[in-house]
Amino acid sequence: MRRLAVYCGASMGADPVFADTARALGTAMAERGVELVYGGGRLGLMGVIADSVLAAGGRAYGVIPKALIDLEVAHTGLTEIHIVTTMHERKAKMTDLTDAFIALPGGIGTLDELFEAWTWNALGYHSKPLALLNVGGFWDGLIGFVDDVTAAGFMSPARRGQLLVADGIDEALEMLDAAAEAAETRMVW
Fold first, then answer.
1. Is pTM, for the whole model, over 0.90?
2. CA-CA 20 to 30 A from 33: which of 52, 59, 61, 91?
């Protein structure tokens, strides 16, 4: 895995552990030579992860719609920033630039990005793995819901298995790295 797309909030959230985890993930990525692909903002967890990757000597690529440059306050110190027109273009560009996806805590934008990446995987548009970094149990409710959807027969166990869940950074990066390597040779249907 050369590049990792990180979906996360443009705010800090209520618990300081969210920012601490974003900071630690960014540092771990840079130390492993994994480049960051993210939404291009400098506020909230988005800014924390970008700053930590850059501070550790890594590379950070932002993708931001023109209309959000002022709202999310575009990060001006990135390795490269791609300015697009729409959110759809943002997600498509991030998908093109990355080898895998991980979601840190965030709101509807994070959920939108995560579910679109998963849907595109299901439709065969890409075979890139995705994971939740379950910081302090943040994703427990969503994990339970996805399990309920599977139990109700609306998602196959194989599809459910595509959403990796990790409680720690090293575990998440190792899972995604192994899954990205496996995805190069096959697609999960």
1. yes
2. 91
